[in-house]
Description:
It is a single chain. It contains five helices and no strands. By secondary structure, the protein is mostly helical. Helix 1 runs parallel beside helix 3, helix 3 (37-56) packs parallel to helix 5 and helix 4 runs antiparallel to helix 5.
Amino acid sequence: MRKLFACAALAFGLALAGCQTVLPSLNLNTAITLNTVYGIENAYGIAVNAANAYKALPLCRTGTTPGAANICAKRSVIVNLQGAMRRARVAVNNLVNFQKTYPSVDITNVLSAAQTALLDVQQVLASGAQ
């Protein structure tokens, strides 16, 4: 898992540094199997790194949009990203705590909530690449 995590972070960093017409989007469905608690925790770690990489970009000037010649972060996306990351953190923590507290109970609904929260983060990051 550490190698997968390192490869994903490296690929995202290289993609940001390279010449592209749009910023890459993070596809958690193909990066990690989201059907286990460990998979959700790893996907959350990848999402945190992607969010931090996006927030580290310089802010777009008023009236400009991100592109190949203007690599920047939109203020509105950063604000939306903060809320999405907050919801994802709560959902992942709830999943882990629920699974530890009730190991014999079906975690499908809690798992689904965490998956939805992480996919919301993915959509916010994708909106920043447009």
